[in-house]
């Protein structure tokens, strides 16, 4: 057993799939990403069986035994503290209040680290930037607006209760045409997520298409659902459609505005933009809109050093980890903790 090489597994539990990777003691990924169904709504035991299946496939692909796995990093799509789920999110009822980390560690006999999916993705982006030694703030628009902060040295900042970096729920002062602050899915009004998320995109598309001047827009033709229309919006924006471009331009500006307040608090030096927008053909334009909002709100010192005008104090980059980022982050952390 002592002579066995060491391997570390990263497991990213999503609402529909578990994405997983395995790395060796040098931090090198062995084999390809493995995906299995997550079955999270069927309870944590059903998901544990899927995690076991993922590990079996990873070790088989790597040509090693399960006994060679010395640590597991596990992330969940819900708030948690010290391995215990605090909120249901899209999970089954029995997840809440359960020591998921402890139970899976007992099941496998392998040390387990657990965090939420935003922290995991941030750790993955950090791990993939081998020459970056400072902090990293990840902002990831998706169904909601998530994020995570990695401190110098590669540890995520989670707060006293594991509830830090709920970036989607900082307040922004932007209002709808009727003067009202938009309702967020969390129950509050005026959150950044109420403007920058897939859910927000559906609302904005519906409001814009209801205007008389957009009655003849192609998205108003036929009987497609608002979800389908929002999904098609990226294609329209890529073609320069004014309605679609206007919606994404507003979204990008508000995202940059919100990031400026986060930078004022954390001063990370590097901001990484993730989520599906990192894959779009108009992402360079979208980054320009983010920077417009950032410059509108940020103090000059968060743009360039007052001592050296050539030095940029806050770098912006697109995410590079893709769908595997969170799993990579968990494997990286397991290696750091358990090697």
Describe how the helices and strands are arranged.
Elements: E1 7-13, E2 17-24, E3 34-37, H1 44-62, E4 69-76, E5 80-81, E6 84-85, H2 100-108, E7 112-116, H3 117-128, E8 136-141, E9 145-151, E10 155-156, H4 198-209, H5 226-238, H6 242-266, E11 270-273, H7 283-297, E12 315-318, H8 325-338
Parallel strand pairs: 1-4, 4-7, 8-11, 11-12
Antiparallel strand pairs: 1-2, 2-3, 5-6, 8-9, 9-10
Pfam families: ROK (PF00480)
Protein name: ROK family protein
Family: Belongs to the ROK (NagC/XylR) family.
Question: TL;DR?
Answer:
By secondary structure, the protein is α/β, with parallel strands linked by helices.
Brief descriptors of the model:
339 residues, ROK family protein, 12 strands, ATPase_NBD, Nucleotidyltransferase, domain 5, 2 domains, 5-stranded mixed β-sheet, 8 helices, alpha/beta, ROK
